[in-house]
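Action item from last week, closing it out:
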Amino acid sequence: MRKRLLLLAIIMCFLLVLTNTLGIADTENNTENNRLSKKVFIPAQARLKAIAPKNMMISGALHFQLKNELDLDSLLKEQYDSTSSNYMKWLTPKEFGERFGTSDETYQLAINYLKESGITVTQTWANHLRLDFQAPATEIQKAFQIEMQLFELDGQTHYGHLEKAALPLSLISEVADIKLNNFLFTQPTLKQQSEVLPAFTDQAGRTSIGPQDIHLAYNFKPLFANGIEGNGQSIGIVARSDFNMSDVDQFRNLFKLPTTSITKIPAGGEIIDRGGVETLEVLLDTQLSGAAAPKAEIKVVVADRNNDIDQSLAFFINNLPDTKVVSISFGACEKFLFPQFEALFNNLYKQAAAQGQSVLVSSGDQGVNDCSDGQSPQVNGLAASPFVTAVGGTSLKVNFDKNGNATEYVGEQAWSGSGGGVSNLFPIPEYQSAVGISLAGRTVPDVSLLADPSQPGFFVVRDGFTSVVGGTSASAPVWAGVLALTNQFAQTKGLGNATPRIYSLGQQQQLSTSPLAGFFNDVTSGNNSAGGLAGYTATPGYDLSTGWGSPNVDRFARSFINAPNRQTGLFLLFPNGSEVLNKNETIKISWQISQELATRGGIQDVMFSSDEGKTFKIIASNLAMNVRSFDFAPDIVTTTARFRIQVRTLANNVIDTSDANINIGTSLRVDFARYSILNTRLEILGETLSDKAKLFVNGTKIDRPAKKLSTGELVFKGKQKKLKIRSGENSIILEVNGVRSAPYKLFL
């Protein structure tokens, strides 16, 4: 008897230790404290049908809290700051997980808890922000103390639950959300126009756009002529449905595109064909991204039957970090997004930026009426993060010859369906406030491209038939191809979040008088009014229907990597770099300060250097923080002058600075320079260039002859070591007849 009592006591002690270790409550009140204080996602239109069968397999996921977020924000600023030692030093998924994911101990504790509860762990992730699992409903209900139910929505049966899920105390503070439903949060942003006749005109006789027409309209061809066709690049397509590879092959054969690698990858379990618009969406993305970058590898990651596109996006970022451009053509109205779902995507976007991956998201097809309810202006919540590039839509006019080939770009206007407006979830980022946008929230879109399905729409092949489609689902993958070409041209290991540099280029175009600064086709007419809601009108420069406009691809790609990233608080607007001034010419120096920097307090100085920045003199001091401009007339003749704005505390501690080089007394200037490691040559574009020009790199005269290829274009042949070009920032100066250009910053 004593032995039995002793054994029973030992067992009770073991169970007590186990219960305390897992933190599972043994009272009703404590159980309630273990429930995640989050809303349960069940669409309002879903109708409750029944309790889920006990043996029904349920797929789910734990999403963990992002850690050390302030440190991550600091790292992201450093990675995009050319003066930082961390500039473009991208993390691996494992490194990201170690620094910003949940700890190894917590992650393993969650794995152990699931396994001990009879649940199968189906996928772990390097970022330690997600854990996927599967089990019969009866085991799920025991582990999370809920009742699984069946719902009907749009004729389809889904599983979910109405109670908040419970977790052990040891995990409750670490987990941001538990996903235990298979509803789809997002929808494709696609518009189908019509099927077309074999002669490539639709029933109304309209001619639509094929790949070669895209190349002409948006000026791809100069890049292609120089071998920039996406070679060595990989474009990721976030998808939810299977598709016939034969349709992609037929599209590429039909439009004489080169053969390239196209791969379908399951993000979790099996790949299913969802049919309808889902299948057309993935075909559209795959065909058009490949049309824009014909030799790039296309990787299509497909979420499984019980998951949304967050699964395929997570797969790209954790398992395919070398896919440096990722396109998302799905949307979800920001008003209806639950905070935990918005945070899930934003965390993945931040991870992508830290790993050098560029994510593009379509801005939506309902104009300002993204919720389709006509109640208030709303934006696509998936495109509102500051760490993605939101792509809007235009209507495009081109001239065609009698064979249906585009011969001339005529112009664009805002497409009425182009999603755009102001986010209610994300504050305005510094790169937007720096260019004078004064709204409280992040604004979208950032850029745009043809999306109107009828003016003129894109050709796409499905089931062997050619259709005309549109929507920002089309403009986003074409822009993905543009960034793949840009990455190849820049010869980088990833561009990362492209949006800050896009705003720098937009501002440079707005301020410049150089014809070489046409990085975007500025769209200045049309609006995105929809659903009875007044939208935003396209205007010169940036606007909330088309962003900065559509790309002049050749000029955009050649200039992108040399555009500064807007990641600090002080920005010199004019002069912006290499402007030409005359002696005694009065100019208005103007600058912008981010709201964050302005609220810190301090004073400002305007400084001027006539010796390439070696020494400065103060031309205006102790300016109040609300001052944004100063008039000045240089009284010297030099060709290597520099302006500087600085903000400092009353104790003379400099908080931030911003510089710009100018030319005084000469029009000799360098507008663009890039070094090709592959072709071992330095290419320079600018004004009043001569083949007699002398080259100075980082202050050293380079003894190499210049070859003038055309008006305004010089080439210096030589290996990197011979030309004294180093990794990181380089100063490029030309001298003609004793006159020097202002320095140009080249990044390698």
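Closing note: The chain has four domains: 34-66+101-179, 187-562, 570-662, 669-747.
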